[in-house]
């Protein structure tokens, strides 16, 4: 998978040299390229922003440097992207986007080419997104209901969430199956040695060797946890197979 990131702070993306994603890049599983938006300006000050029409606080990113940066990326990938007729996905991290959830990460993991546009200030001139729709499948996505200073930290989170789902990036693909959100529920609690630690014992059942009962216990734990911490993830009256109703717990 190829991932291009456009930013005015390329240093932020150095975290992608590290750990699992860094290794996947070195192995050629992920072709991640970082671009400085200011390389697509032509004035002495390398200006990327200006004051908002209509007034108001802050600055807005000018559309032209973005268009030049995105055109250069689209041109450099045209052969590969044309091969299957699919446009690359343009991911725009923004608190006013739709929620970036595991199902979105799974969809994006199937793409050949992602381009991430990291905005700063009050955002990018709206016309950029209309213009970009000819070259890209544009998706505005948010990490959640809070505000970051720019898209870079969100881009790191999204690239890690998508990158680890690309075949070969995570060594043991089974670890992708039993994790929070992969089945719409939170993960069950986990324990390791020693079996007794500071007067606290690992739940008996996990030492029993009875894999059927362990699987059932873990599923119950997932449901109880999801109800307690994230009831918004559950359907109103849960219809999950093997489920207990609230009154049974
Ligand atoms: Cl994707 N971007 C910014 N700037 N702030 C955010 C966000 C994204 N998600 C939550 N807050």
Give a description of the structure.
This protein is α/β, with parallel strands linked by helices and 249 residues long. It has 2 domains: 2-163, Alpha/beta knot (3-Layer(aba) Sandwich), CATH 3.40.1280.10; 183-248, Trp Operon Repressor, Chain A (Orthogonal Bundle), CATH 1.10.1270. It is 31% helix and 17% strand. It contains 7 helices and 9 strands. It has helices at residues 19-26, 63-83, 102-109, 127-132, 152-163, 174-177, 211-229, and strands at 2-7, 31-36, 49-50, 60-61, 89-99, 113-117, 137-142, 196-197, 200-201. The strands form 3 sheets. It has a 5-stranded parallel β-sheet. A two-stranded antiparallel ribbon has the order 3-4. Strands 8-9 form a two-stranded antiparallel ribbon. The termini are far apart. The relative contact order is 0.14.
Secondary structure layout:
Layout: E1 2-7, H1 19-26, E2 31-36, E3 49-50, E4 60-61, H2 63-83, E5 89-99, H3 102-109, E6 113-117, H4 127-132, E7 137-142, H5 152-163, H6 174-177, E8 196-197, E9 200-201, H7 211-229
Parallel strand pairs: 1-2, 1-6, 5-6, 5-7
Antiparallel strand pairs: 3-4, 8-9
The structure holds 6-chloroguanine.
GO cellular component, one term: cytosol
EC number: 2.1.1.228
Domain tRNA methyltransferase TRMD/TRM10-type: 1-234
